[in-house]
Amino acid sequence: MRVFILDRTYSGESVYQLRKREKDYLIKVLRIKTGDVFTCKDIKNNYYRATVTDEDTLFLEATDDPEATLLDSLSAYRGTIPSIRVYQAICKGKKNETVMRMLTEAGVEEVVFVISEYCQEKTLGDHDIRRLEDIRKEAAQQSGSSSSMGKIRVIDIKDAVSDSPYPLIFLHQGSRERTMSLKKALSDISGSSVSVLIGSEGGISDGECAMLEASGVVPVLLPTNILRAETAGIFAVGAIETIWENPYIV
Question: Do residues 117 and 207 lie in contact, with contact meaning Cβ atoms separated by under 8 Å?
Fold first, then answer.
């Protein structure tokens, strides 16, 4: 369902002052007017019934029935989307923004950025993280995604195995001894929860592949052309959701 997401600084007040970007979204995009009532939530996934008191202000009341005042009646998938966490090696420049936008709209649980050997940029600065959080918020509002709104995390690739709450697979650009098809890798997982590790430009190094495999992580080779770092994740997530939704796909 599509809801309005409150700023990360919100801490439970009943009166909420709209920022310019938020006001433009509500008034110019969604055509919200004074007196209208709609659902919003904070970054901890607490839901509120919001009443527009004037063009700059909302009055918020906690609610246990968020679907009663949804922003719109757009059709939306109401089933259970698989829990997918994506570990994405940091890409160059604005490619990380593309990754965040697409994966949030696809409904992934969380995007965790990873530092790996082939990353040309070895960190994300405070400005980069703030920008990515803004993009994630806008994508979640537009798509109705339930992706985590917590602070964006950056970890080393060696920590991805212990960080992942689900079985972890990694996409590799070539065939390795233990390489599986995506369908086979998913069939070996109990339930519908998985984490996927995606390399940056140039992929994942042989040494990192060996380290991951030694930790029990399965290499997966997708039956497609070589994908760019910023499109491999969305391709994989779409394929995972399709396979788990249609288990008889061969």
Answer: yes
Structure tokens at 90: 């940091």
Which residues on neighbouring strands pair with residue 203, listed in sequence order?
A: 200
In sequence order, which residues have a C-beta less than 8 Å from that of residue 14 and are 6 or more positions away?
A: 59, 60, 61
What is the enclosing helix (H) or strand (E) of 160? helix 160-163
DSSP of 48-64: EEEEEEETTEEEEEE-S
CA atoms within 13 A on the CB side of 117: 10
Model confidence pLDDT, tens digit, residues 75-127: 444 556 789 999 999 999 899 999 999 999 999 999 999 999 999 989 999 99
Both structure tokens of 46:
């607490």
The C-alpha atoms of residue 4 and residue 107 are separated, in whole angstroms, by 16
Point out which residues pair with 168 in neighbouring strands: 195
Q: Please calculate the CA angle 20-22-23 and round it to the nearest 5 degrees.
A: 65
> For residue 89, which of 129, 111, 116 has the smallest C-alpha distance?
116
With a CB cutoff of 8 Å and minimum separation 6, the contacts of 132 are 96, 97, 100, 124, 152
pTM over 0.70: yes
**Nearest of 163, 159, 172 to residue 219 by alpha carbon:** 172
3-state secondary structure of 213: helix
Task: Using CB atoms within 10 Å of the CB of residue 234, give its burial: 0 to 12 exposed, 13 to 18 middle, 19+ buried.
Answer: buried
Q: Where is 235: in which H helix or E strand?
A: helix 229-245
Q: Find out whether 219 and 176 touch, Cβ atoms under 8 Å.
A: yes
* Cα–Cα distance for residue pair 90/192, rounded to 1 Å: 26
